[in-house]
Amino acid sequence: MTILPDTLPMAEIDLQIRPDKRFDIIDLTRFIDSELHQSLASYRKVLYCSHHTTAGFVDQRMVQRFRHDRETVEAYVRSHKALFPAGADYRHDQLDERLELSEEQRCVEPRNGDSHLTFISSGLRNCVTYDQHADHPVYLVELDGVNEDRPRTRTTTIIGYDHEEQVIETQIEVPVSAHRIDSVNLRDEGLGIYDQLNNILAAYGVQKGRIDISLAREEEQAGLTVNEFETLLMRHDVRDVLEGPMRFIAERGKSILRDPRNIPSRAKAYAKYDFVRVLHGLMNRLNLSESYVERAIERMMAVPAKHFLSMKRDVSLLVSDRNIPGKGEILNGRYQSPILIQWGRKPTQQRRLNVRILRFD
Fold this sequence. Notes:
By secondary structure, this protein is of the alpha+beta class. The chain is built from 13 helices and 18 strands. It has helices spanning 28-35, 60-65, 70-81, 103-108, 113-121, 193-204, 231-243, 245-252, 254-258, 268-271, 273-286, 290-300, 304-308; strands spanning 2-7, 12-18, 24-27, 45-50, 55-56, 127-131, 139-142, 146-147, 150-151, 154-161, 164-175, 182-185, 209-215, 222-227, 314-320, 329-331, 337-342, 350-360. The strands form five sheets. It has a five-stranded antiparallel sheet, covered by helices on one side. Helix 7 packs across helix 8 (245-252).
């Protein structure tokens, strides 16, 4: 693994990593201390922000439940990876259908639909804030670190700080379609949400901070993630998962289902994959159709997607003045967008989001 340090002024650091393998759990604190010779121990809080849609973090409360154990974090993520095996027939990976790509891009574009779906389904976050504990590791979960034996350069921005101040809390309404399953790119210029947020940052003079976006309490059958809003991924692969988790798993993951030994035993408690495996066995033994089993599942589970996906109700965005000193703005990776996903109709065709803007000092 190669570390390319690039230290920015004050407490803001860019850490660039070239992973050795496609899937890895990387302890960032160890590299900051040993490779950059810079400690974050003097700060009360540390924000970590991945610039990628297939590399992210588990939030601190979940890591605490896992007792900061790397193997448990890995088992949790592997349980979701088992649902989305590499090389399956994902529409995102049909590069000849990706009209936004040039011929040159198609030659190097990774086929990583499994990594995107694993990121979304496992509830990984692009941006997390940890209360500082010098002896606790901070794990970057890398799902797509190598493309055709070539390591990819992965960037994480890290800010150490002592205090955060809420400068404003507001609500925004997001239009959604009448379809039961829908996804909305909150970075879409037509919505104007980023313009609105950046204007607030300018009005309050926020140079470094964080924007927290969450679903309003009354919003149900919906979740938030930060990922690539690519048409085939969001309009086909994600939709197919939400339409019928059992059907999707049966069609895409036949090799996994045939060999349940591939599933780490420690992971089963987290993703309930053993439930899927048992049902698949029943389908074979009793000669039941997938549609029959799905109807039975729907009677047992009011919202099947909610039980198969660990999607979150909130996301965070990094604010930094690194590009224009003194002017804070939302800092995103090239392909990152906050995305609202729903799996139940909203009669008003509007979803309400709570927005908090915090300033660091």
